[in-house]
Specification:
6 helices, Putative DCC family thiol-disulfide oxidoreductase YuxK, four-stranded mixed sheet, protein-disulfide reductase activity, DCC1-like, alpha+beta
Length: 138
């Protein structure tokens, strides 16, 4: 009788992946590794607790397929991009908010700034920075 109960329940149990199946990174961060300022900022984030759980892709030096679907090298080098585990791609201020929320020590800041008009203001500031960024590359 015990085996009959198990047989009835078995189809309803969720199927779990085998233990050796690698899980996708919660976030993949695409950055311009040829930009000295960008490299320094990414180095700061990569030194934070929890950063080892994220995937970091230097868009200036990676193979094109490492950028994944919907992202070409020129776009990846033009601004920060972040892809979540479901494959959604965000960039600019939204990318930074996702990155910050993915790092335990920065999560509070990401949540705080991801409200109301703040993301739009951050995007405005990021676009201004992008115009000035070439000056820091010299």
């Amino acid at each position: 009788m015990h085996w009959r109960v198990r047989a009835r329940l078995a189809p309803r149990l969720p199927m779990l992946p085998p233990m050796d199946t690698p899980r996708p990174a919660p976030l993949t961060v695409y950055y311009d590794g040829a930009c000295p300022l960008c490299r320094r900022e990414i180095a700061l984030y990569r030194s934070q607790p929890g950063a080892e759980q994220l995937c970091w892709v230097d868009a200036a030096h990676c193979e094109p397929q490492a950028l994944g679907p919907g992202l070409d090298r020129d776009s990846a080098l033009a601004r920060l991009h972040v892809r979540d585990a479901q494959g959604r791609l965000v960039s600019g201020a939204r990318g930074f908010l996702a990155l910050w929320q993915g790092l335990p020590r920065w999560a509070w800041l990401g949540r705080l700034l991801d409200r109301g008009p703040l993301p739009a203001l951050l995007e405005w500031g990021y676009r201004l920075f992008l115009r000035l960024r070439p000056l820091w590359r010299r």
